[in-house]
Amino acid sequence: MRTTLHLACLAGVSALAFAAQPALAADEPAAESAGSIVVTATKRAVALDQTPIAASAVSGKDLAAANAQSLGDYIARLPGVVFNDYQPGISEVVIRGIAATTYHEQGQTTVGYYLNEVPLVEPGFPIAIPDVDTFDLNRVEVLRGPQGTLFGSSTLGGLVNYVVNLADPTKIDAAASGLVGTTKNSHGEANYAAKAMINVPLVTDKLAVRLVALQRFDAGYLDNPGTGVNGSNDFRTRGLRGSVVFTPTAATKISYLSSWQDTYLEDQTYLDLDHPYIRNTARAEPQRTRFWMNSLRLDQDLGGAELTAIGSVIEKHNFTQFSYPYYYVTGVTTGSGAAYSAGNANANIKTAEVRLASKGNTPLRYLIGASYMEARKHSYDQIFQNGAAAYIDANPALFGGYAGSVLTPGDRLYGYLSDTYNQDVGVFGELTYAPRHDIEITVGGRYFWNRYNATVVNQAGALGGYPGGYNPTDAKGYVSNKEDGFTPKVTITARPTKDFLAYATYSEGYRVGGINPNAGLLPTIPVKYNSDRVKNYEMGVKFHALDNRLYVEATVFNIDWKGIQARLFGPAPSYYSYVSNAGSANISGVELSATAQLARFASFSTSATVQDARLTAFLPDTFAVGGGYASGSVLPGSSRWSVANNLKFDFADVAFKPSFEVAHRYLSSAPVAFGNTATRGNFNIFDLRASVTVGEKLRVMVFANNVFDKFGILNAPFTSQAVPAGSIVRPRTLGLRADWSL
Questions:
Q1: Which of 331, 362, 510, 652 measures 20 to 30 Å from 493, CA to CA?
Q2: Would you give the distance in Å from CA 292 to the centre of its chain?
C-alpha cells in the first residue's frame, strides 16, 4: 500500500511536469539542457546525452547546490545505485543490485572507483575506498552496467569516477566554503567544514598550479554507555590536493595530480537497532584511513588522433579496532578485560595506461589501449584479551596443557597475517562504424591476463569458547594463480533526430579471484576462490522534448551473474569468513531519470529504479540452516524500488537570487544477508534547502537534512548478536553553509 501510494504521488508530480509545459510563455527561453554535461564515460569527451551508455553525472555546481559533502550525500539519489553506508572510508557502492552482502565484499569490489580515470581500489578486500570530498570537484560520473571492456576488473555493476578540477593556466581563481551545523543527539557538539582553493598561472597560458585544502567534522550522534561517551562516533576528514598543468604547445598537455585524504572515526557507526542512538561496547572502536595518490598524465594531439598516457602510484593505510562481546578465554566481556582487536593494513598500487583515440565524427572511429596494474598489500589483525595468558596457565587442562605463552603470547588470542601481490595486464579497444548518419555499430573487447601470489598465516592462538578452540601451531595458506580471458562489448546506436538517441548493448564484466582469508585454518574452507562474471543485456533511450524543457533517460537491463564470490561465515563463536564460488543470479530492472523545467523559476527532477535480483541456482553454505540458500532468494541489499525526487524554485531575476529546494528519497526494504530475516530500507527521507546570493560571489544556504528525523536502517551486518546491530540514516541535521568564489 505504501509503495502504491508513493508511486501514485510520483506519477502525479511527473504528470504535473508535462501538464505545465503548454502554460509557459511562448517567448520564455528554454532551460539549459540537462544532458549537456560533458563526461569521459567512453574515454572520450562526449556530452552525456550523446553517450550510448547508462550513465549519470553530477556537476560540481550541482553538488554544492545539494549541500553534498561526501559520497553518501548524493550517490544513492542516482538511478540503479544504493550505498552500503557502514564504515566511513570503506563503505561500498552497489549498482544494479550486484552484491552478495551488505557488509563488505570479501574479495574485489563489484564497483570500480576512479579519480580522474586512475583506479583507486586494489584487487581483493580493499584497504580503503576513498570517499573524495566534493569541494572543487568538476563532476562525478557513475556508469551503470559492467564496464569490463574499457576499465577492466572490479566493474561488474559499473563504476564511479571522480573528476577533480585541475590547474588552469588561463586565469587566477580562488574559492572557499564553510559550514556549521548541528545534528540531533550530538549533545551540543557542532558539525563544521572549512575548505579553500587557489589557482595561480605561473606562465600565462602555459603553466599553472592549483591547491586545495579542507577539513570537515561531523559530530557523533550515538551514545556508548560502555565507554561513557555520548556522541561517540565523531568523524573527521582532512584533505590536501594539488595539481600542476603544463601546456608547452597547443597540442601538448602535461598534468600532475596529487591527492591526500585522511579520515578518523572515533567510534564505529553501528548501533543496537532496538535501542535508537545507543551502541554499547566495552571499548571504543576507532578507525583511520589514509590514501595518497600521485599521477602524471600526457594528452597529445597528433592531428587525426589523440594520445593519452597515465601513470599513478597510490599508498593506502587502514587502522581499525573492534571490541568483542564474546567470552573467549577468560569469560570477561566488560571493561578492560573484554577482548578487542587491532588491525593494520597497507597497500601500494601502481598503474599505467596508454591509449590512442581517433578524432572527429567520421564514419569510422577507433580507440585502442593497454593497461597495467601492480598491487601489493599487507595486513595484520590481532585479537587481545587482558589476562588470557595467566588464565590459561591457571587452567592448563582446558587448553591441552599448553602454556599461555604459547597460545596467547602477550595476551594475544589471535593473529592474522596476509600478504598479497596482484598483477593485471589488459589490451582493449573499440571500433565504431556508422553506415549512415543516424546509425552506429560499436564492437569492442578487452583481453586480460592477471596473476596473484598470496600468503595468509593464522598464528597460534586460543579464541576459546568451544571445544578445541585453540591451535598451538600456525595455520598457513598459500596460493599462486593466474588466468586470462576476454570481455566483449557490442552496441548499436540510433539517432533518428538530434534530440533522440536509442541504443542496445551486450557487455561483460569480471572480478579477479584470490586467496581465502582463512585458508588453511579449517578443512571446510577452500584455499582460494576464482573469478566471477556477469553478462549484461540492455536497451536505453535518451531524449529532449518540449524545446529542451524536458530531458529523459530510460534503460531496461537483464544481467546474468555466474560463479558468485559469495562471502560466507563459519560457525560460532569465531565466525571465520571465507569466499565460495557458488550459485548464480539474475538481475533485471528498469531505470528512469528525468528533468523537467516547469517554469522559468521551477524545475523538477526524478530518478526511479525497479529491479528484481535473485539467485537462479542453489548457493551452498556449509554452516547455514538447510545447507545453503534456495534459488529465488533475493540478493542481499537489493531493494526492489529506489526513488529520488527534487523540486527546486530558483528566482534568478529577484534581488539576492533566492532559491528553495525540496529533496526526497525512498528505498524499499531488502534483506541484509542470505538466510537472514533482518531488512534494511523501507524509509522516506526529506531534505530542505534555501539559499541567497550576496553580491555576485557569495552564496549562503540554510539546510535541514532528514527534516522529519526518520530512523532509516541502512545496514545490519551484525545480526548474529543478542541485539542486532547496524547503521542508520544520520538524524535530523540543521546548518548554515557559505560558498565564495572569485
A1: 510
A2: 18
Residue 696 neighbours by CB distance under 10 Å: 8
Handedness of CA 142, 143, 149, 152 (dihedral sign): positive
Determine contact, residues 124/479, Cβ cutoff 8 Å.
no
Written as nine digits, the cell of 440 is 552506429
Q: What's the Rg (C-alpha) of the chain?
A: 26
Q: Which three cell numbers stand for residue 713?
A: 536502517
Spatial contact of 282 and 307, defined as CB atoms under 8 Å apart? no
Rounded-to-integer distance, Cα 198 and Cα 175, Å: 7
Non-local CB neighbours of 368 within 8 Å, separated by 6+ positions: 355, 356, 428, 429
Q: Tell whether the model's pLDDT for residue 136 goes beyond 60.
A: yes
**Cell matching residue 117:** 580515470
Q: Pull the grid cell for residue 532.
A: 566471477
The predicted-structure confidence for 368-412, as pLDDT tens digits, reads as follows 999 999 999 999 999 999 999 999 999 988 888 899 999 999 999
The residue among 108, 82, 72 whose CA lies nearest residue 670 is: 82
Give the pairing of strands 111-115 and 158-164. Answer: parallel
Strands (E) across 359-438 are located at 364-384, 412-436
What residue has cell string 591547491? 211
The closest of 230, 260, 42 to 164, measured between CA atoms, is 260
pTM: 0.92
Q: Which of 207, 214, 274 is nearest to 243 (CA)?
A: 207
Residue 436 CB-half CA count within 13 A:
6
Query: Where are the extended beta strands (E) located within 30-120?
Result: 38-39, 46-47, 55-59, 81-84, 92-95, 111-115, 118-119
CA 519, 420, 380 angle in degrees (round to 5)?
75
* 393-410 as b/e: b if 16+ CB within 10 A: eeeeeebeebebebbbee
Given a contact cutoff of 8 angstroms between Cβ atoms, the answer to whether 483 and 450 are in contact is yes
